[in-house]
Amino acid sequence: MIRAVLIDNEPLALHYFQNKLQNFQQIEVVQTFTSVKLFLNNLPSMEFEVIFLEIKLDELNGLEVADIIKTDRPHVSVIFITSYRDFAIQAYEVGGLDYLLKPISLARLEKTVLRIEHEFSMQQLTQQASNTVLNVQCFDQFAVYSNNSLVSFKTEKTKELFSYFILHPNMPIHRDYLIEILWPNLDYVRAKSNLHTALSYLRKTLTNIGYSNCIIFSNKYYIFEKPNIMCDLYDFQQFYSDFSKLESPPIFLINQCLTIYKNGLLVYDDYSWATTYKDKLYKSYIDLLDKGFQATVLTDTETAIDYLNTLLAYDPYNEQKLEYYLQVLMNAGHHKQAHKILLAYEQKLKEDLALSPSPNLKEISKKLFQNK
């Protein structure tokens, strides 16, 4: 049995609709209200799975009441009943399951009840799958796995929208900003429609794998409330945070971060909005390599050279950095390794740019040849 609450400030309309629902044995009306204030006073003590809600109410409008309900009980299905056509978009934005126009026919109400039953069944499945952990991969190619199976998104924009939420969890994001970054070349009305469609697809996909109600809409802002998921980006951020707090971070912590980073964030996903995020992580990656080089240059030359070669591969023509690293190697007594790296740089500079090293590097070269 699915327990229902009804709110309408017109007693006759409320009684009429309650009689309509008696045609459906799977719905049990547990309480009715003509006052929003009275409903909110009773809310903490009530248990229900669905609420039928008029848009035009006295104290608060139905959209505001729905927002309160979805914040307090995100699993509750909200069905709007009204004579006004103009609030449909706002109704779905706050998480409404259906939008019924008065007068409501029995046939139309039957379709709504079927939706409620489906939503209720999905809620039951979600509870059963509460131990399911979603695995999200952000480095290299963006991919999502549920029970080791790749999750398929209905459209590329749905996938991109989810990747944006993953990169910005628990952060209020204005609806118009999402429209601007995802559909910059479309007119506002069409882009807004596309956003609603993508959100609908995404919510359905997440619900089907046990993660319903993690996208909240309130006052034109969306919030992705980060559920219990595994994510390589979150692991990297946590390890790097731990690393940054230590004056002399252990090598294993540095290597953990480097292993996760791989080739970079969203390498195969050309999302222009992710550029700043990628740059920030890239700087963190370079910092890790630099600290790894500094930590091993006196104790593990081979590992230090591996770090250094990776650093130089990411910034091959930066002579100022190269001079610094060569000096560190020379101060540590690794003249042979420094000479080898300098020769490789001179060769690359000549082949790629037809240039010669700077006077400073030539001076370092002379010192290295003397110690060779």
UniProtKB/TrEMBL annotation:
<dbReference type="InterPro" id="IPR011006">
    <property type="entry name" value="CheY-like_superfamily"/>
</dbReference>
<feature type="domain" description="Response regulatory">
    <location>
        <begin position="3"/>
        <end position="117"/>
    </location>
</feature>
<dbReference type="InterPro" id="IPR001867">
    <property type="entry name" value="OmpR/PhoB-type_DNA-bd"/>
</dbReference>
<dbReference type="InterPro" id="IPR011990">
    <property type="entry name" value="TPR-like_helical_dom_sf"/>
</dbReference>
<comment type="similarity">
    <text>Belongs to the AfsR/DnrI/RedD regulatory family.</text>
</comment>
<keyword id="KW-0902">Two-component regulatory system</keyword>
<dbReference type="Pfam" id="PF00072">
    <property type="entry name" value="Response_reg"/>
</dbReference>
<keyword id="KW-0804">Transcription</keyword>
<dbReference type="InterPro" id="IPR051677">
    <property type="entry name" value="AfsR-DnrI-RedD_regulator"/>
</dbReference>
<dbReference type="InterPro" id="IPR016032">
    <property type="entry name" value="Sig_transdc_resp-reg_C-effctor"/>
</dbReference>
<keyword id="KW-0805">Transcription regulation</keyword>
<dbReference type="InterPro" id="IPR036388">
    <property type="entry name" value="WH-like_DNA-bd_sf"/>
</dbReference>
<dbReference type="Pfam" id="PF03704">
    <property type="entry name" value="BTAD"/>
</dbReference>
<protein>
    <submittedName>
        <fullName>Two-component system LytT family response regulator</fullName>
    </submittedName>
</protein>
<dbReference type="InterPro" id="IPR001789">
    <property type="entry name" value="Sig_transdc_resp-reg_receiver"/>
</dbReference>
<dbReference type="InterPro" id="IPR005158">
    <property type="entry name" value="BTAD"/>
</dbReference>
<keyword id="KW-0238">DNA-binding</keyword>
